[in-house]
Each structure stands twice: as C-alpha cells, then as structure tokens.
C-alpha cells in the first residue's frame, strides 16, 4: 500500500530555523511542502523516509535563507491494483456508491456497478443493502469494510498544454469533515476505485465465522 | 523539483509503523530539548516550538489506522522476517506476499480473496498451512511499546549557543540513540529482503 519514491528538490531553510539540527530543518521543509499532498502519477505523500544526498547550503543575495539541493525518499500511499485493503465506511450514495475511509486518506469509492450483485439502495435509510439468497445484508456506516482496488485515478484540473514538470495539489484539506465534502470525483486529484464483487469482500462482519 | 524514481520499492505496514514511531519520538525529543532551552532564555530569544501541521495530522491519522485496523501491534521485526522466509516456499507473487503480510488473513475466505486462482494453484492443505504460518508469526500477543526515550538533562554545553546538539552524544542517552539508529538501518533490510 505504501511505496518509496526518490525525489530531488531545492529546499529553503529560513534563517529563523538555523538553530535547528540541519537534517531536522530540511525534513520540516519537506514535510510542509509534500505531506498531505498528492504528487501527480506518484501518489499521496505522507512523510519523509530519509535524506539520501544533501547538497551544500548556499545563500543567495537578497535572501538570508539557505538553499540546498537535497535528494530524499518519501513514503507515498499508492495502492496497487488488485490489492485488498481494509477500511471504514464513510457514507453511502445512490450515484457514487460507497465512500470508504482509511483515516489518513478518504477519497476511496466503490461505485454501484462494482458492488456485489443484488445490491440495492434504500432511499428511506440512505443505505446500500446486499440481498443474497433472500437475506439482506446491511452496509453500516463506520463499520469495517474490505475491498479490492480496481483502479487508481489521477485527475488533473489543469487544461493548459504546458504544465510544470511536477505539480503539487492539495490532496485533502486539513481537518476537513469528509461527510460534508462536496467535491466530486473528478475534482479530487487522487481517487482510488475499489470493488467488492467477490466473496470475502464487503463488510467484515458478514464473513466472520 | 523532480521525481527521480516513482517507485523504489514497497513498504509493509510494519515498516511504516516503525517509521511513524521513530519520527514521533524524534519530534518529541526535539520539542523537549527546545522547551528546556527556552526556559533559560529571555522571551525575545526563545526558539520556535513548531512543526509543520500537515505532517502532524497525517502521521497521527496513519498511527491510528495502523494501530486500530491492522495487526501491526502484534508483530516485531523477527516475526516479519521469519514469516517472509517461511512463506517463500510457496510460489506467491511479490504483490501477494506483501498483501498477505499487510492484511494477515486468519480465515480461508480472506486468503482466497488475496490470492487469485487459489484453488487451482494450491491444495487445501497448503492454504491451511499458509494460514497457520500467519497465525504463528503475525498474530502474537500485542507487543508492548518500547519505552520512549526519556530526555536526560545531562547534555553539557548545549545552552551556550542554543539549539539542538542531536548529533553529539554528550548526554546519557547514547544507548537509546544507538538503538534508534540501528533500527533505522535495519528497517530498510526488510524491504530489500522482500524485494
């Protein structure tokens, strides 16, 4: 579910942070720039793993901060296709299916056509239910949910032909309440699409023995 | 800013959990050092006590996910390494191995979901054996957290120029710091072995 990515960047350390251990100052700079954000075609960046190469810090005229070329490895969240992941159900919707959350990442959808056969949406309770052999199994909000990754989408809202080499976009607003998030699937930069049309997938309580 | 390599290799939940713990401890230590330094300084000379908010949020959520929804708290490094050695005798793909390690399936249904064409590739005994391996290595009693490194205020000379002297081992924490450094070197071994 997590991978390592090697990134090279020129990092700026403000003079007010010169008292810090230099490694820590660089890591803080990386975290404020990459953490909780999506790197297009790479994944959702979480934190730094280590710094592999640190260049000498230079000070340019007009700015008291030091700049250094650093190569570092990032821990990135990027589920592989076909991977089985366990999360919690966030919300149910008629059009978008079920939204699953992993705590640190909540843009996971299981669309209606990838739910198991016999799933129906109940308009009254606003919940999906799976009807199998005349027994209806409920999807509970907040319940433990297992799904298989079917696709991973990177959506770009930039329409220009020339885009900068690597563009950072906010993956998830801080402290955002996911249930009131009105962003559609096309606006979010990194979406994971899961499926549960196999035996063993879905709510965990259905398969407990 | 340039992405040199998109995918250097996968990380299992155990490694991410260790990394999380380590960076939490380092941050706590750094904060303590700065707090104590600040106590001796006049207000206009005090250091900033701050860390980027994003990483605090993400790492906190990640910690909660790994501790509550996965079986990471039942594993130690030896368990994971032994499990990988044992599961190698079955010809699983690398992705399937990682998935079994992360999800730690204890029921046949879960294993059949992870491994495609399970009934064709392995006999029933072999699948039961795989589940026994998971139970043996990955489902032990929850490991108690290692005691967090306590800040020992024996560092000499750190108040003069101010700030951290994390690189020098003038304090009494040499053993604990060595422990942390050792563990970081070994953590990468797990990923390399699995690769």
TrEMBL record, chain A:
<dbReference type="InterPro" id="IPR012340">
    <property type="entry name" value="NA-bd_OB-fold"/>
</dbReference>
<dbReference type="GO" id="GO:0005666">
    <property type="term" value="C:RNA polymerase III complex"/>
</dbReference>
<dbReference type="InterPro" id="IPR013238">
    <property type="entry name" value="RNA_pol_III_Rbc25"/>
</dbReference>
<keyword id="KW-0539">Nucleus</keyword>
<dbReference type="InterPro" id="IPR045113">
    <property type="entry name" value="Rpb7-like"/>
</dbReference>
<dbReference type="InterPro" id="IPR005576">
    <property type="entry name" value="Rpb7-like_N"/>
</dbReference>
<dbReference type="GO" id="GO:0006384">
    <property type="term" value="P:transcription initiation at RNA polymerase III promoter"/>
</dbReference>
<dbReference type="Pfam" id="PF03876">
    <property type="entry name" value="SHS2_Rpb7-N"/>
</dbReference>
<keyword id="KW-0804">Transcription</keyword>
<comment type="similarity">
    <text>Belongs to the eukaryotic RPB7/RPC8 RNA polymerase subunit family.</text>
</comment>
<dbReference type="InterPro" id="IPR036898">
    <property type="entry name" value="RNA_pol_Rpb7-like_N_sf"/>
</dbReference>
<keyword id="KW-0240">DNA-directed RNA polymerase</keyword>
<dbReference type="Pfam" id="PF08292">
    <property type="entry name" value="RNA_pol_Rbc25"/>
</dbReference>
<feature type="domain" description="RNA polymerase Rpb7-like N-terminal">
    <location>
        <begin position="8"/>
        <end position="64"/>
    </location>
</feature>
<feature type="domain" description="RNA polymerase III subunit Rpc25">
    <location>
        <begin position="83"/>
        <end position="207"/>
    </location>
</feature>
<protein>
    <submittedName>
        <fullName>DNA-directed RNA polymerase III subunit RPC8</fullName>
    </submittedName>
</protein>
From TrEMBL, chain B:
<comment type="similarity">
    <text>Belongs to the eukaryotic RPC9 RNA polymerase subunit family.</text>
</comment>
<dbReference type="InterPro" id="IPR005574">
    <property type="entry name" value="Rpb4/RPC9"/>
</dbReference>
<keyword id="KW-0539">Nucleus</keyword>
<keyword id="KW-0240">DNA-directed RNA polymerase</keyword>
<dbReference type="GO" id="GO:0000166">
    <property type="term" value="F:nucleotide binding"/>
</dbReference>
<dbReference type="InterPro" id="IPR038324">
    <property type="entry name" value="Rpb4/RPC9_sf"/>
</dbReference>
<protein>
    <recommendedName>
        <fullName>DNA-directed RNA polymerase III subunit RPC9</fullName>
    </recommendedName>
</protein>
<keyword id="KW-0804">Transcription</keyword>
<feature type="compositionally biased region" description="Basic and acidic residues">
    <location>
        <begin position="166"/>
        <end position="180"/>
    </location>
</feature>
<dbReference type="GO" id="GO:0006384">
    <property type="term" value="P:transcription initiation at RNA polymerase III promoter"/>
</dbReference>
<dbReference type="Pfam" id="PF03874">
    <property type="entry name" value="RNA_pol_Rpb4"/>
</dbReference>
<dbReference type="GO" id="GO:0005666">
    <property type="term" value="C:RNA polymerase III complex"/>
</dbReference>
<dbReference type="InterPro" id="IPR010997">
    <property type="entry name" value="HRDC-like_sf"/>
</dbReference>
<feature type="region of interest" description="Disordered">
    <location>
        <begin position="142"/>
        <end position="195"/>
    </location>
</feature>
<dbReference type="InterPro" id="IPR038846">
    <property type="entry name" value="RPC9"/>
</dbReference>
């Amino acid at each position: 579910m997590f991978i390592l990515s090697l990134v090279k960047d020129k990092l700026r350390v403000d003079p007010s942070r010169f008292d810090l251990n230099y490694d820590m100052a660089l890591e803080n700079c990386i975290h404020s720039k990459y953490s909780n954000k999506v790197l297009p075609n790479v994944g959702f960046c979480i934190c730094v793993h280590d710094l592999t190469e640190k260049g000498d810090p230079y000070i340019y005229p007009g700015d008291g901060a030091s700049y250094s070329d650093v190569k570092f490895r990032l821990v990135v969240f990027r589920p592989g296709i076909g991977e089985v992941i366990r999360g919690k159900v966030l919300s149910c919707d008629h059009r978008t299916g079920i939204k699953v959350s992993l705590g640190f990442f909540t843009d996971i959808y299981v669309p209606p056509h990838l739910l198991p056969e016999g799933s129906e949406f109940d308009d009254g309770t606003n919940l999906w239910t799976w009807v199998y052999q005349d027994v209806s199994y409920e999807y509970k909000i907040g319940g433990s949910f297992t799904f298989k990754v079917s696709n991973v989408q990177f959506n770009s809202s930039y329409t220009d032909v020339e885009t900068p080499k690597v563009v950072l976009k906010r993956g998830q607003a801080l402290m955002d309440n996911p249930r009131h998030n009105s962003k559609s699937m096309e606006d979010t930069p990194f979406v994971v699409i899961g499926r549960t049309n196999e035996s063993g997938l879905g709510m965990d309580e259905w398969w407990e023995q | 800013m340039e992405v040199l390599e998109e995918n250097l290799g996968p990380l299992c939940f155990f490694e991410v959990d260790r990394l999380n713990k380590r960076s939490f401890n380092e941050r706590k230590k750094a904060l303590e050092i700065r707090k104590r330094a600040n106590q001796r300084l006049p207000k206009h000379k005090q250091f900033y006590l701050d860390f980027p908010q994003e990483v605090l949020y993400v790492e906190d959520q990640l910690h909660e996910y790994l501790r509550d929804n996965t079986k990471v708290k039942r594993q130690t490094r030896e368990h994971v390494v032994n499990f990988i050695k044992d599961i190698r005798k079955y010809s699983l793909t690398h992705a399937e191995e990682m998935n079994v390690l992360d999800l730690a399936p204890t029921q046949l249904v879960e294993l059949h979901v992870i491994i495609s064409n399970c009934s064709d590739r392995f006999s029933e005994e072999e699948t039961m054996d795989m589940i026994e391996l998971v139970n043996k290595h990955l489902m032990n009693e929850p490991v108690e957290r290692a005691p967090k490194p306590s800040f020992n205020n024996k560092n000499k000379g750190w108040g003069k120029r101010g700030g951290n002297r994390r690189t020098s081992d003038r304090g009494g924490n040499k053993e604990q710091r060595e422990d942390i450094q050792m563990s970081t070197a070994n953590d990468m071994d797990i990923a390399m072995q699995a690769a």
